[in-house]
Amino acid sequence: MRRKLKSGLLLMLAALTLFSQNSFAREAQTGIVTADGVNVRALPDREAEVLAKVALGTELTVISNESGWYRILYDDDVGYISKDYLFVNASGSRGAYVQTDGATLRGGPGQDAYVVTKLYAGQGVKVKAIIGEWYFAVANEQPGYIHRTYLTMTESTTAAGGSRLEMGMEGAEVKKLQQELYDRGFITKANITGTYGANTRAAVLDFQKAMGMEAADGIAGPKTLNAIYDSANKLKKETANLTKLKGTVVLLDWFKGGSEWLNKGARFTITDVKTGLSFRARRFGGWYHADCEPITAADTVVMKRISGGKWSWNRRAIWVTYGGKTVAASMHTMPHMSNPTRSNNFDGHFCVHLKNSKVHETSKPCPRHQACVQSAYKSGK
């Protein structure tokens, strides 16, 4: 009986081993390293210990995919390589983007081969195979060969539905992007260089955040480019808060938490609902409402633009953003009475009213201010 049981267990273990080996054989793939000095790490993390560095063209056995990483075998050790640096052809293609204008797709893997077509920075291609330092790729349905130095590989099996511009790219498409960012106020004219550097990345990141994009990474992918080039999208740097804050505006009673929230000394952002312009202000006093002043001379300039170039007692619907909250409010722009800060070029202070706040002179709510508070609330819903 014991012999039979032992024999049965051995057969089961053998079967499991064989199944495991066959399963591994089915799952294992070969990947080719696409850059020089690529790190093999102990864990799927860019901060993990580096086990080894592998050269361009090295073939590695891929065990599995793990969220942006390949688990691989290297010299009988198990490690991880970012998917950005390993070409695995099981799916038939890998997406890549051209780095610079004038890169050529050729009829063979060599600089002497005839030119099939010229490519531009940011153009998406499909890489089908790697032959030494050359990629066999398809661009605009035309097959050919392109040297690896002209491409940036991605994890995707396709080049995500269009162009993508990022750090290091150069060419007319980059310049076009920079011109649009300049027109929207996100970069200066000096940054229109045709080279996607740190300033362009920062400008794209600012634009993405202003648009409320989830994947704000400073890379101008298809969604970002569509938003930037959309003529119906009027987003500019100076009006970015208006777009970003819509849907977050709340009503807050001045006497039920409003005065404590916008405390004396608070520095906050005011966004004018009509123009979309924003400036910074500070509350320094007030009991029935907030007595405020622009923080700097530059803030005073924006405030005067909001007011049509001249100071006015006319009430305006505004949003006040402070401490992670945006509240419906009202203000006028006329400088009067106390003038705590001379350097801001605002000769006095102005008043900010929340829901149910009052005028100091009458100790009653101002109907015009309260109407603007309600208007600001409706506009921000």
Largest sheet: 6 strands, antiparallel, barrel
Second CATH tier, the architecture of the largest domain: Roll
- Report the CATH topology name of the largest domain: Pnp Oxidase, Chain A
Q: Treating each run of at least 4 consecutive H or I residues as one helix, how many helices?
A: 8
Order of strands across the widest beta sheet?
A: 16-17-18-21-20-19
Q: Tally of extended strands?
A: 21
The coarse silhouette is elongated
Gap between N and C termini: 78 Å
User: Strand fraction band?
Assistant: 25-35%
Range of helix content:
25-40%
Report on the architecture of this protein.
The chain contains 8 helices and 21 strands. With 381 residues, it is an alpha+beta fold. A hairpin with a 3-residue loop joins β4 and β5. The radius of gyration is 31 Å and the shape is elongated.
Offer a concise description of the structure.
By secondary structure, this protein is an alpha+beta fold.
